[in-house]
């Protein structure tokens, strides 16, 4: 089982892509932020029928979680 409290879900979201802090975090390690890399590290892009049971907790006003609601 996976439980996440306000954890990131989709690093390809423009809110991350347009964030200087987010870009600086990875560039400090010499990582190039390609779409393929961001999808690989985004839980949103890893969910399939073989994923463990998962529960995500977010606030009702969190703009980054709105796309992850099913």
Structural write-up:
This protein has 70 residues and is of the alpha+beta class. The chain has one domain (2-68). Helix content is 27%, strand content 11%. It has a two-stranded parallel ribbon. The longest helix is centred in the middle third of the chain and has 8 residues, at 20-27. The model has no long low-confidence stretch (mean pLDDT 83).
SSE inventory with pairings:
Layout: E1 2-5, H1 14-17, H2 20-27, H3 35-41, E2 54-57
Parallel strand pairs: 1-2
What is the distance, rounded to the nearest whole angstrom, between the alpha carbons of the first and last residues? 18 Å
With strands numbered from the N-terminus, the spatial order across the biggest sheet is 1-2
Residue share in helix:
25-40%
What does the oligomeric state look like here? single chain
Radius of gyration: 13 Å
SS-derived structural category: alpha+beta
Count, helices:
3
Q: Give the percentage of residues in beta strands.
A: 5-15%
- Principal-axis shape: globular
Give helix and strand order, one letter per element, not per position: EHHHE
User: What is the average of the pLDDT values?
Assistant: 83
Largest sheet: 2 strands, parallel
Tell me the number of strands. 2
Q: How many structural domains does the protein architecture include?
A: 1
Unreliable runs? none
């Amino acid at each position: 089982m996976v439980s996440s409290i306000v954890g990131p879900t989709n690093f390809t979201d423009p809110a991350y892509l347009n964030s200087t802090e987010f870009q600086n975090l990875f560039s400090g390690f010499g990582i190039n932020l390609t779409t393929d890399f961001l999808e690989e590290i985004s839980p949103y892009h890893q969910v399939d029928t073989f994923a463990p049971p998962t529960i995500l907790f977010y606030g009702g006003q969190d703009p980054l979680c709105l796309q992850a609601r099913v």
